[in-house]
Amino acid sequence: MTSASPFVLSVIARHPSGRMPDHNFRYWIIAPSVFLLLLIGLFPLIYSLVVSFQQITMTDYDTSFAGLTNYAQLFDDARLWQSIAHTLIITIIALPVELVFGLAMAHLFLERMPGRQIFISLIVLPTVISPVVAGATWRLLFDQRYGPINQVIGWFAGHEVVMLWNITPHLVYPAILICEIWQWTPFMFLILLAALSNVDKSLTEAAELDGAGFWRIFFKIVLPAIWPVMAIAILIRGVDLFRIFDVIWALTSGGPGTMTETISIYTYVQGFQQFESSYTAAIAFLIVGLMSVIVIWAIRRMGLAK
Amino acid sequence: MGYSTDGTCEMTNFSLAATRRWKLACRYGLASLLLVFFVFPIYWLFIISFKTPDEIFHFPPVWYPKSFQFANYAVLFKDGDAVSVLNSLILAGVSTVIAMIFGTMCAYSLVRFKTGGEDFAVWVISQRLMPPIAIIFPIFLLYVYLGWVDSYGGLIILYTAFNLPYVIWMMRGYIEDIPLELEESALVDGCSRWAVLWKVVFPMARTGLFATAVFTFVFAWNEFIFALVLTRTEVVTYTVQVTHYFGGQSNFWAKIAAMSALGTVPVFITVSLLQRFLVRGISMGAVKG
């Protein structure tokens, strides 16, 4: 790195706002990051847009302008809309469960008790595991014969049960959701526990002396206090759930048939198994466009960037 | 549940103590149930890696092996599959170092010079929240064109780029905590801007740098979809290697468990050592604890 600095003196006469009148250094130091971010932030968008107007498939390399053919196809593609529906179903169920479950757990561990830190340290372990490994782990657990889950259910049922968790249509979603909730409830739990610990105790105690009940205190004092943090946790998890791939890939690979195909899995199949390049590009552009709008709106709404 | 331990004052001391004990017992009971739910799957994964084939494929399931044997791990090393852990280490390690240097520089510019203002900050963090699948397809076509598929360089660049928003975001928070006076006095003493960055900002932010680097490393280490698309044989990471053991008819249970354990133990160790940064790390700085 060069160290020549022509602006040493300029800084002594600093602008009163604390902003230093210095125009090259500040851009030099963001240049590498901006370059790399454009590689993943802008290039894919432009490239998807270009390819989506062509007609590149496995057998055909037609780069002439194809108009909106691929985008028109999006609307007729039932499998695409089903995959979006699957993604939304998983998100709509998993997110509130993780939130409520995590919040309840945070309450349980809020007060001091001997061994509390050990409990917390162990309970958060699933969150740091790779989602693929989590999926693989649950695949082993769910095995119909050698897995412990059917065995335990069998104890309660009083007889041997054969439940094919990753094949049977009405069991695949519970299987995915259990794995998902297992892995990410600790994430919510940990963040909400920290947020709850920061709530001003004197306020809740005063309200309690005034005779307010648990729920009243929760909704009037605690929830508003933890909301900024909770909102970010919900945003992070919501986005993660929308792009869910790894866990399902390991558990069901989208099956049986296309029953658990999420938007990420479907895009992968189109792009890397069916080699429908142009059509995949149209889907990618749709996803990026959709997510950009939602995400940027959410970030601004929450004042996350300030 | 409850926001204070003892709300009612009319109770006698005896019944108060009894109620407390009862409540504590309930909390331990619940906590233990939760512990089983969250830890048993991990136990099961690790225990399978120590079982013999007879114990793995035994009905009813064997809850703990008779003796711990390491044959399942030995196979991974003998067949060369364990190289995938080394690949993960190289990719995650190198990309983390680069992302930390570039990201911290960028964060410094954002904090001290307000470069790009709020719009730039929003754009940076929105990149973090993009679905990888939408990014990976065009990147794949680009990499095929450049001949970068299945190379360390290609994946390192991608991991660096994908982790940059996180680094910039986290380091922004840590740099804001550094007092401005130190930098000013260094400048008055005749240090160049670059020297201030290297000799004042980086050392002052070392705690944040360290914590952020560890999480960046873990994200890259655990990454799956980029590695799935962009690796073939040379730079296969441990996450991709795990999925190679799933078959249509039979799964290589022992290998799945042993490989997963190899990839998971380092994460557990690092995260345990960094307990106090965990909340800030995973909440993207929303909770400063």
Description of the molecule:
- The complex is a heterodimer of chains A (306) and B (289).
- Chain A is mainly α and 306 residues long.
- Chain A has a domain at 67-115 and 185-301: MetI-like fold.
- Chain A has helices at 25-28, 31-41, 43-52, 69-76, 78-108, 116-123, 125-128, 131-141, 148-157, 169-197, 201-209, 214-242, 246-251, 263-273, 277-301; strands at residues 55-56, 61-62.
- In chain A, strand 1 (55-56) and strand 2 (61-62) form a beta hairpin.
- In chain A, helix 3 (43-52) packs across helix 15 (277-301), helix 10 crosses helix 12 and helix 14 packs antiparallel against helix 15.
- The longest helix of chain A is centred in the N-terminal third of the chain and has 31 residues, at 78-108.
- Chain B is mostly helical and 289 residues long.
- Helices cover 73% and strands 0% of the residues of chain B.
- In chain B, helix 5 (117-128) crosses helix 7 (152-176).
- The radius of gyration of chain B is 25 Å and the shape is flat.
- Chain B is built from 14 helices and no strands.
- Chain B has 2 domains: 1-43; 75-282, MetI-like (MetI-like fold, Orthogonal Bundle).
- At the A-B interface, helix 1, helix 2, helix 3, helix 5 and helix 6 of A face helix 1, helix 4, helix 5, helix 6 and helix 7 of B.
